[in-house]
Amino acid sequence: MTLSRAEALKAAAEILAGIKEPYNPTLGIDHELILEKEGFLIVPYNGEEYLETRDPMEKLVGCWPILVDLATGEARIATDKDRHLWSEQ
């Protein structure tokens, strides 16, 4: 099984919907920064206000990207051990 980009984005959106909290800002996928690497779709997200304005003062911190395994369809929030997938270091 290999997921299409659209299927992978749907899986990421489901993860994002699951972390919604009543007093937190509305979150959205940052489509400009999506990457594909080592069999994963790396889907960053942030607050909708930041995504609309790109104002650094509106950027939320601590938003680890969502990783979607394109072979299995598993989607999850990335951890520190996954950093090599999107980091230049």
Overview in brief:
It is built from 2 helices and 6 strands, in the order αββββαββ. The chain is an alpha+beta fold and 89 residues long.
Descriptive notes:
This protein has helices spanning 5-18, 48-53, and strands at residues 27-29, 35-37, 40-43, 45-47, 66-69, 75-77. The chain has 89 residues and is an alpha+beta fold. The strands form 2 sheets. Strands 2-3-5-6 form a 4-stranded antiparallel sheet, covered by helices on one side. Strands 1-4 form a two-stranded antiparallel ribbon. A hairpin with a 5-residue loop joins strand 5 and strand 6 (75-77). The model has no long low-confidence stretch (mean pLDDT 94).
Average pLDDT level: 94
Q: What structural class do helix, strand and pairing data support? A: alpha+beta
Query: What share of residues are in beta strands?
Result: 15-25%
DSSP helical segment count: 2
Which spans have pLDDT < 50 for at least 5 consecutive residues?
none
In oligomeric terms, what are we looking at?
A: single chain
Helix share bin: 10-25%
N-to-C span: 31 Å
Order of helices and strands: HEEEEHEE
Sketch the major β-sheet. Answer: 4 strands, antiparallel
List the helices and strands and how they pair.
Elements lengths: L4 H14 L8 E3 L5 E3 L2 E4 L1 E3 H6 L12 E4 L5 E3 L12
Antiparallel strand pairs: 1-4, 2-3, 3-5, 5-6
Keywords:
89 residues, alpha+beta, 4-stranded antiparallel β-sheet, two-stranded antiparallel ribbon, 2 helices, 22% helix, globular
